[in-house]
Automatic annotation (TrEMBL):
UniProt name for this protein: Integral membrane protein
Annotated keywords: Membrane, Transmembrane, Transmembrane helix
TM annotation in the entry: 15-34, 55-74, 80-106, 118-141, 153-170, 177-196
Organism: Streptomyces marokkonensis
Taxonomic superkingdom: Bacteria
Amino acid sequence: MGHWLDRNIIEPGKLPLLLALASFVLTFVVTRVITRLIRAGKGPFGNVTAGAVHIHHVVPGVILIVIGGFGAVAGGRHGFGSAVSAVIFGIGAGLVLDEFALVLHLDDVYWTEAGRKSVEMVVLTAALVGLLLAGFTPFGVNDLSEDELQNRAGVAGSVGVNFLFSLIALSKGKARIAVFGVIIPAVALVGSLRLARPGSPWAKRLYRRRPRARARAILRAYHHDRRWSGPRRAFQDWIGGKPDPPRPLERG
């Protein structure tokens, strides 16, 4: 284990990234445990307030991101200061992304259906950082040979093609595939070749006069959502807690 850590993490200078990821995941887990205890009315925890203002944990998270980010820039990639900055940045990122949905909607949607976006963002971020730790390089540059790496035109062409695949996948409504495709180009290639999701920019523009393609896209999206929405929601509930049921509409 020690040899693997030295060879794959410490020598390539990835220790700060590992520390940032570990502190990020740990902060998210601890934060969710505390918020779920507060929600259940258990334990010594409570909401932080300043007068009548509820101080959300995204506020100290932003401050910690700023401190850790500038500390990392000033301290370089090696040394004790870099490790401390990485931990501070990871803690701040965990606090901020735990309330990503609040920032997105500018509303306290933490325990609503919209709040699931926070869990999705945390899982996506952790997965992407994990791929970087595993040795994947954005746009598949790590797949090039030594001769290709020395050829700037070849590198630029490879990056441009992979980026184009990711953009096509994004225009087809496959945001997750587009993001992962930046790290693993084969994923973006598959996403760019498959049918677009209904309502995506690609479908609106190119399927408008192709009723068969539009019908196939709707059918495929229906079967995909029916197959995976249940397991995905159960996984999100297990990680972040089940959202509150929607409030019934008041009759005037």
